[in-house]
Structure formats: C-alpha cells, structure tokens
Amino acid sequence: MTIETVEYPRTPLAERKAGRKNWERTGWMFMRVSGMLLVVLVLVHLYSNLVAGDGVHQIGYEFVVANKFSVPFWLIWDALLLILALIHGTNGMRTIVNDYVYKPGPRKALTITLWTACAIEIILGLIVLIVFAVEPCIHSASGIAICQ
User: Fold this and answer.
1) Residue 7 is assigned to a structural domain of this protein
2) Considering the domain boundaries, does residue 2 fall inside one?
C-alpha cells in the first residue's frame, strides 16, 4: 500500500508529471489573490455599513433592503464577498485536510464534503440575496407585512 502525496505548490515545471496541472499551485495562487480582494471587499463593506451615514445605528431591515439591495452595485459587491469568502475558507480547510489526513480515501471524502458544503452555502446565500433584492416585502403568518 502506497501513501498518495499531495504535490508541492512550487514544484518546478521540469519535475512535474507530463500533462498534469499542478492544482496545489493554482490553489496557492488563488489564496493570495482572493485574500487581497477579500481585504478590500470587507473593509469597504464595514465602512459602508458601520461608519458612513448614521453608523451602526442605521443598520436594520429597511437600511439593507431599501438602501443597499436596491442598488445593483452593492448586491454584486455582497455576492462577490460571499462567494470569495466561502471559496477562500474552503480552500484553506482543504489545505489543512491535505496536511493532516494521510490516507487517500478519507482525504478525498473530506475534500468532497468540504466542496459540497461550500457549494450549498453559496447557493443558499445567493438565493437570500436575490430574494431580498426582488421581493423586499416580508409577510408573516400573522398578516403583518414588513416592507420598504
């Protein structure tokens, strides 16, 4: 029984197996680029929500639905923040699994579970963003409606 190893991200091109893409290098580069983008996305998100305007006192259903999600720029901004953060975190967890799980079977099962959970969370998060952008009025079972 042989132990399958994960390819080192900085393996020189001459040493790599012919025709194989180095996914570890791709993941390594993605973490650097997405990390820089996430810093900008998060700082602007925090500034626009907590500092600009009335600060933290303005945060509420009306602020999010009427002010933020009525502008497509902020809807795309929040969707990009959601997607990048989840993929960045999942890729980090995948790296931890690769570092500490030595057997290929459990490693593959955990990796598939991580990416499946990531995809489900992205889909659910985008559904919430789209629903609030399209239908900002919530109707409760008691007949009370919260609208913009």
Assistant:
1) no
2) no
